[in-house]
Amino acid sequence: MTLHPFPPLYDKNSNILILGSFPSVKSREKMFFYGHPQNRFWKVISAVFGDKMPVSIEEKKKFLLKHGIALWDVIASCEIEGSSDSSIKNVTANDITEILGCADIKAIFVNGKTAEKYYKKYIEKAVGRRAVCLPSTSPANAAWSLDRLVEEWENKIVQCNEALKL
User: Fold this and answer.
1) I need a labelling partner for 122 at 20 to 30 A (CA). Which of 17, 95, 115, 150 fits?
2) Is residue 39 annotated as part of the catalytic site, yes or no?
3) Domain tally for the chain?
4) What is the rounded distance in angstroms from the CA atom of residue 11 to the CA atom of residue 114?
């Protein structure tokens, strides 16, 4: 069983929650989200918010909080081979109620189909909130170019922001 090794990132001003599935081997080594250099999360999110791409973990934390973004993963522990989402089994979900209780989260997004699957299975009913599925920024999602990811993420995040008056 592999445990999620680091806490969520959020503060009371967070209004968007983005949930991944489970940290990759590289992310677990670096003890922070989207640590694999081939994962396009940081390129996508910086393009969506029209800001300089953060490089260090400290810059990434400041970037997220500056833009009202809370970040965590759906899965607290699981059996996983390397970083392969398709190998995930025996899942225990994270409890996101602490984030929802502290921050005024207006929209919840999941980064990819695996995060969506486990969110729907373990969290959606418990918190009574739906999540919008964004295409995965993982390098395994090779069908999506960086430009296409940015466009889709921007469209969905902007639509939610406009609908919720963020």
Assistant:
1) 150
2) yes
3) 1
4) 26
CA distance 48 to 121: 29
Q: Give the CATH number of the domain where residue 66 resides.
A: 3.40.470.10
pTM of the model: 0.95
Task: List the domain range (segments joined by +) for residue 155.
Answer: 2-164
- pLDDT in 10s for each residue of the chain, 166 residues: 999 999 999 999 999 999 999 999 999 999 999 999 999 999 999 999 999 999 999 999 999 999 999 999 999 999 999 888 889 999 999 999 999 999 999 999 999 999 999 999 999 999 999 999 999 999 889 999 999 999 999 999 988 777 666 5
3-state class of 67 per DSSP?
coil
Name the pairing type of β-strands 107-111 and 16-20.
parallel
